[in-house]
Amino acid sequence: MPAYYFPIFSKENLIEKMAEIIRINQKYIDIPKEIENLKKQLPKLKYPISSGEELVEILGEKVAYKFEKKSFNLERVVEQIPSDYFPIKSENEFYEKTARLMAIWPFVSP
What we know:
Number of strands: 2
Low-confidence stretches: none
Strand content: 5-15%
């Protein structure tokens, strides 16, 4: 944390400063481009999808996909998806929720 962030006056002040550091250091992700790339990789899905386990089952054997030209493991990602994201009732909803997840979670494998 840079010296000019001190002193910290309260818990709320610390949270504000940490949020600023995260925002400044957050890498830009071209979400529309990555969604288009993902659409090319995925088979046609059938809806509704009731759970993450069902999503993995539908997608079958291929468990590695590309995100920003790096691989990510589908099973690892699915484990992190909040249960309230399901059911997914349509393709449009699937990609809207996927875009939100791309923006907030580091899915890429090291």
